[in-house]
């Protein structure tokens, strides 16, 4: 991945750098849970070193229900709070004055009952409402199947 990042430095275009902050609710599917008891909440920050690539970080929280089979073959339900933190990278393949579409990857750490690394990949889009406010949505595999929320231009 570092080779790709260094290779992209040659496509650097002159523009004002921008940063954005996202606030999203996640719906359905998670890294480790069999069901989500509350909607997952995510916050992320992205910095654009180039026109079509952003890098940043994310944090999130959800309450999960995890079914575990014990040594006697009985299913046991466990409720677990799940905190996540990690890095992300988005590649923007379409941008115009009102719309942006991108592919998304993230990697990080998930706490909870079975603490582990998490991964996420998918695609997303944003619709511009004003100079500093967007609606956003992402679909993918990893933390949540669908995320919806708002984006603030910083």
Structure overview:
The longest helix has 7 residues. The protein is mostly beta strands. It has an eight-stranded antiparallel β-barrel with strand order 1-3-4-5-6-7-8-9. The protein has one helix and nine strands; from the N terminus they run H-E-E-E-E-E-E-E-E-E.
The number of strands is 9
Q: pLDDT under 50 segments (min length 5)?
A: 1-15
Structural class: mainly beta
Oligomer: single chain
Please work out how many helical segments DSSP would assign: 1
Largest sheet: 8 strands, antiparallel, barrel
Estimated radius of gyration:
17 Å
The amount of beta strand, in percent, is over 45%
**Terminal residue distance:** 27 Å
- Compressed to H and E, one letter per element, the order equals HEEEEEEEEE
Global shape = elongated
Q: How confident overall, as mean pLDDT?
A: 83
Helix percentage: under 10%
Spatially, the strands of the biggest sheet line up as 1-3-4-5-6-7-8-9
Provide the fold topology.
Blueprint: H1 2-8, E1 18-27, E2 35-36, E3 40-50, E4 53-69, E5 75-95, E6 99-110, E7 116-128, E8 133-141, E9 146-153
Antiparallel strand pairs: 1-3, 1-9, 2-4, 3-4, 4-5, 5-6, 6-7, 7-8, 8-9
């Amino acid at each position: 991945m570092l080779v790709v990042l260094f290779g992209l430095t040659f496509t650097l275009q002159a523009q004002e750098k921008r940063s954005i902050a996202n606030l999203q609710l996640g719906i359905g599917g998670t890294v480790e849970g069999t069901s989500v008891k509350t909607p997952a909440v995510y916050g992320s920050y992205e910095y654009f070193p180039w026109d079509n690539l952003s890098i940043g970080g994310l944090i999130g929280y959800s309450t999960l229900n995890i079914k575990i089979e014990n040594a006697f073959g009985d299913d046991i339900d466990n409720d677990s709070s799940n905190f996540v933190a990690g890095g992300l990278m988005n590649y923007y393949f379409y941008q115009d004055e009102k719309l942006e579409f991108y592919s998304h990857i993230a990697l990080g750490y998930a706490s909870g009952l079975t603490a582990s690394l998490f991964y996420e990949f998918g695609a997303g889009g944003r619709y511009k409402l004003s100079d500093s406010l967007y609606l956003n949505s992402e679909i993918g595999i990893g933390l949540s199947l669908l995320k919806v929320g708002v984006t603030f231009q910083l």
